[in-house]
Amino acid sequence: TVVATANAFMSPMTVRSASRALMSEVETPEAASPDAEPVAPPAPVLPTSSTALPFMDRPMALTGELAGDVGFDPLGFAKDKETLFKMREAEVKHARLAMLAAAGWPISELLDGGLAKIFNAPALVDSTDRVPSLLNGGLGKVSPLYWGIVIGLAAAIDLYGVSRQGNAGYIPGDFGFDPLGLYPKSPVERKEMQLKEIKNGRLAMIAVVGFAIQEAVKGVGVVDETPFFFKPITATLGPYFDHLTNSGYLN
User: Fold this and answer.
1) Stated pTM of the model
2) Which amino acids does the record list as binding chlorophyll b (predicted)?
C-alpha cells in the first residue's frame, strides 16, 4: 500500500514505443513548394525507322503529331514542319472533295437520265452512262454557270480557311464547321475522328482515279460495270435467274 501510494506522487515515465521510434527514423518527403514550376512530362521517344517503310529512316518532319502519319515520305517532300503543314492542308481539301466525288459520280450516272427528262434538258451522261470527265470527254456540255458557282464557292471556302490559320490550336482543315455537334470534346476521340476522315479521304482519292480509268478503258459507266454495288439485287440477279428458268434448270 505504501509503495502504491508513493508511486501515485511520482512523475510518469515516458515510454517510447518501437513503432514510434521507427516512424521517427523514416524520412518524410518534403512538400512541393507552391511557387515551384511544374515538371513537364518527358517527350515521347520517336522511332528511327519509318512505320510505313521500315527499311527507310523516318522523315524528320513526320513526328506522328498529325492523324494518319505513318512516316511515308519516300521522296522527301516534307522537308520541314511548315511544308508539312501546307501539304496536309492540301491533302485534307483533296480528301474531302474526293469523298464528295466518290459518292456523286455513281449517283449522277444513276439519276442524270431521269432528271434530264423531268426538266426537259439534255442528259450529261453519254449513251454508255459515263459521266463527263477529263478522260471521257463531255465537259463542254456542262453549263458555264455551274462552273462559275463551283469555282466561286471553292474560293470562298478556301479564303475562309486561310483566315482561320492564325487561330491558336489550328490544325489543317479546321474550318469550325460542325452544325450537328459530332466533333468530340476529348483530344483522344478527336484524333480518332481525324484519322477516320483522312483514311476515308485517301481511299476516296484512289476510288475516283479508279472510276475515271475504268470508264476510259472499259467504255461503260461504273454503275453498269459493277451493278451489284449501285443497283438493287433484283436488278443484278434477276436476269441470272431468268436465264436459269428459261434454260430449264429451274421449274
Assistant:
1) 0.74
2) 96
Alpha-carbon span 182 to 193, nearest angstrom: 10
Structure confidence by residue, pLDDT tens digits, 83-110: 999 999 999 999 999 999 999 999 999 9
Angle at 52 between CA 93 and CA 187, to 5 degrees: 55
Cell of 50: 519509318
Contact 157, 174 (CB under 8 A): no
Flag residues of the chain having pLDDT under 70: 1-44, 238-251
Confidence (pLDDT) at 110: 93
Cell numbers that stand for 5 in this block: 501510494
Q: Is 88 annotated as a binding residue?
A: no
Residues 6+ apart with CB under 8 A from 9: none
| Grid coordinates belonging to 14 | 515516458
CB 221 within 8 A of CB 128: yes
Length of the chain: 251
Is 86 annotated in a binding site? The answer is no
Q: What share of the chain is helix, strand, coil (3-state, %, to 5)?
A: 50, 0, 45
134 is in an annotated binding site: yes
- Measured CA to CA, the distance from residue 52 to residue 72 in angstroms comes to 6
Give the integer Cα–Cα distance in Å for 86 and 65.
14
DSSP string, 161-190: HHHHTTSTT--TT-----TT--S-SSHHHH
133 phi and psi, to 5 degrees? Answer: -155, 175
Question: Which grid cell sits at 192?
Answer: 480518332
164 in a labelled binding site: no
**For residues 78 and 84, is the Cβ–Cβ distance under 8 A?**
yes
Contact 208/136 with Cβ under 8 angstroms? no
pLDDT digits (tens, 9 = 90+) for 218-228: 999 999 988 88
